[in-house]
Amino acid sequence: MAKPIAITAVSASPDEDRHRRIVTYTVMMSIRVACVVAILFVPGWWRLVCLAGAVVLPQIAVVIANVSRRREEPAAEAPGPLAIPDRVPPEWLKE
User: Fold this and answer.
1) I need a surface site. Which of 11, 18, 33, 87 has the fewest CB within 10 A?
2) How many domains does the chain have?
3) Nearest to residue 20, comparing CAs of 64, 73, 74, 72?
């Protein structure tokens, strides 16, 4: 069966968009918590990497989570110009 043609380019519902943003933010904050815990256990320059992750990830998470996503669907095609016939067919004149 052929895919139906979309009349409008409708974006995701607010509930779907909110769920996607919550999941994205939660994953990034979980990584931040792992970085904070890792600061206590890793030696050397890895501690600085974890510290940078713990400091920078909140700002990145907020920016990424607040971006709303729109579906990329092809735009509907506009109809072409109407052609005016040179001659009117006889069946059009009958009433």
Assistant:
1) 87
2) 1
3) 64
